[in-house]
User: Fold this.
Amino acid sequence: MFQEYDVIVVGAGHAGCEAAAAAATMGSSVLLITMNMHTIAQMSCNPAMGGVAKGQIVREIDALGGQSGIISDKTMIQFRMLNLSKGPAMWSPRCQSDRVLFAQEWRNTLENNPNVDFWQDTAKEILIKDGKACGVKTSLGIEIKSKSVVLTNGTFLNGLIHIGEKNFGGGRTGEKAATGITEQLVTLGFEAGRMKTGTPPRVDGRSLDYSKMEEQPGDENPAKFSYTDTKPLAKQRSCWITYTNSEVHEILRTGFEKSPMFSGRIKGIGPRYCPSVEDKINRFADKDRHQIFVEPEGWDTVEVYVNGFSTSLPEDVQYAALRKIPGFENAKMFRPGYAIEYDYFPPTQLKSTLETHLVKNLFFAGQINGTTGYEEAACQGLMAGINAHQNVYELDPFVLKRSEAYIGVLIDDLINKGTEEPYRMFTSRAEYRTLLRQDNADMRLTEKGYKLGLAGPERVEAVRKKKAEVEAIIAAFSGTKLTPEEINPTLEAIGTALLREKISLSQLLKRPQITIDQLKEASPVVAGLLEEYGQDSIQQAEINLKYDSYIEKEILLVEKMNKLENLNIVENFNYDVVTSLSFEGREKLKRTRPATIGQASRISGVSPSDISVLMLFIGR
Assistant:
């Protein structure tokens, strides 16, 4: 009935979709197994992509040749660039998505890839032979053979949904949990744990009074995620902001005794940076209000997502509290919020390719690794799909360094430090964030995606053209000077020091008060220099010129760190023979099996003296 596939992907959420698309685009035959063909790429929580640090990840996925950026552009209803008041390392794109269109576009994309097949069923067991994954067995008892398996089970592994004192099995509301795989992997020696996440109630937008809320429109000139020719939005839908109050908090507190979180019925650890509303009013009792973001779920629906009101309290308490929020006095609830517990596997059991140490050709991606967020899941799926393909065809593994991408930071953090709570990406996690900006993801990664066979030739040609334009602009600005007479009126108008002598455009642009657009408007010379270049190239050149000293400093740090990254440790290195290692260091090294000295240095519990001993032992 079934052919032998190169790659089987279990689960069709954000991680599974990117894994399937990547492996198939690179030439692998792929079977995508999902419990429900109608919920492929379902946005289980808020209908949005991007945000602080997450937007950088979506841009990186796109630059490598992944699909999340393109699909976000095609299905967004609002776009905003966050943190524009800060430096460019903090700028983060975010869009509000049409939930239905997003899932539909993902399904269309996968169905249009001739290397992707589908099967609606539940994977109950991984087929393993000689220590290698070689397929799956489904709930129908069908054995399907493959050369590699990617698990992207999301919240479905032994999922348990909580609403007040009620709980029932499920991976998402209205969908059953998946059983069998956790139990099998534990018997093989894998360590498993429990995590928790949650979602807010959904309400009828027709029942809300928006006049009592603050409007949050999209950007006047909306940008987009993808570096391809997707179109920016011509029209947008607004989001809205309102606030809880003391009356809301008091009503919520009446349900605390029935809260599964406070009563101890929920054992899993929830996301620290996206707490439930009951957790917020409990932890921050001094705050008399909390923000609520009112987000439409699409162009053609009245359903509204109540961001900031995630809860697992009894539904009657949720409803009563909601109606005390300004603008929600007559709110009608479509469905209550709930919490969900699910199994995950501590990611220190993975290689940097996301392949497991214990079973060859078995990959984990997404929430199974302890992460939270569509973007974090999608980038793991992309990397797992790439490396599953590379394994099948005996090609070199593909790994991104911390200095190359936020994706590299995320995976390096997971496999070396692990996580005991749902991991979420922040700009603060990236020590080289001046290099890892959202605007230059194509310059950093598209050549790599092209060499993999994932990004097409038109993408790499566009990047090469952009690089040439940026270099030309920088050269022109370094070699062109303005006189005081030409520019002083503009400098006086913006309140910065006047010139006494000629100065190069590159030096002038280093002033924090001055932008390239101001220079272009003030000087016909500057306008002439820039008239043949695109806005992306101009912005890139401006950032490179304005922040060149900071960029150079980070490049030097990267070069220093890369010396350790280039010191390889053999795969089956025997740490027991290195008697000078600390006991904790030896145990952590044996568990994580780092590929390089650099990776070893980032493992929690491995001390600098352990690294020195290792370097001496391998002759460095």
Residues 348 and 592 are 6 Å apart (CA to CA). The first helix runs from residue 14 to 25. The mean pLDDT is 94. DSSP finds 21 helices and 22 strands in the chain.
